[in-house]
Amino acid sequence: MEKEIEDMKDETCIFCKIANGEIPSETVYEDEMFRVILDLGPASRGHALILPKDHYKDLCQLDEKVAARIMPLAAKMGRAMKESLGCAGFNVVQNNGEEAGQTVFHFHTHIIPRYENGPAMVSWTPKTAQPEELKETGEAIRKALS
Ligand code: AMP
Ligand code: ZN
Q: What percent of the chain shows pLDDT beyond 90?
């Protein structure tokens, strides 16, 4: 497994270098599996990125043991942000694929503090789903899962 992960690692991956301490970053948390850094282009004060130290391109490649630790770590970071920065809440955002807004192809999770009267950031315009469309879409996804 270790070897497979090593094979996936791209020597030019900037987040591999940051996560493993080869490039300096504003690190707010570190353990044997993750480094959490402040984003250089923050959506709000305290915007942080959870970086696994091993390279995974996106969520579909992510090891399950690593995945299992991300939400608890996101909660820990969110709690610390509320206490230290006084944010009212926070968003957990994770992009997969260029069309979904992913720009760095080393899996990462955004923790974005949200402040009272702050700008709307993570939003979409809801459409009205037709029952037939929901049924067809549901069938297509269920088929892929079976
Ligand atoms: P995504 O669009 O989900 O791939 O997010 C990539 C994020 O990484 C963006 O929010 C960038 O501002 C941030 N970013 C890119 N390079 C660096 C860097 N060297 N240090 C910190 N954050 C970075
Ligand atoms: Zn990487």
A: 87
What is the model's pLDDT at position 140?
96
**Among 16, 23, 40, 58, which residue has the most ligand 1 atoms within 8 Å of its CB, making it the best to mutate?**
40
Unique residue bearing structure tokens 């192809």: 105
User: Which of 23, 20, 75 is closest to 52 using CA atoms?
Assistant: 20
With a threshold of 0.70, does the pTM exceed it? yes
State in Å: Cα 42 to ligand 1 middle.
9
Rounded distance between C-alpha atoms, residue 35 and residue 106, angstroms? 13
At 9 the pLDDT is: 59
Q: How far apart are CA 53 and CA 99, in angstroms?
A: 25
Catalytic residue numbers, as ranges? 108
Residue among 113, 112, 109 at smallest CA distance from 50: 109
**Secondary element (H or E) of residue 79:** helix 64-85
Strand order through the sheet with 27-30? 27-30, 34-38, 48-52, 109-114, 89-93
- Tokens standing for residue 73: 């770590």
- Of the ligands numbered here, which is closest to the C-alpha atom of 121? 1
Ligand nearest to the CA of 24: 1
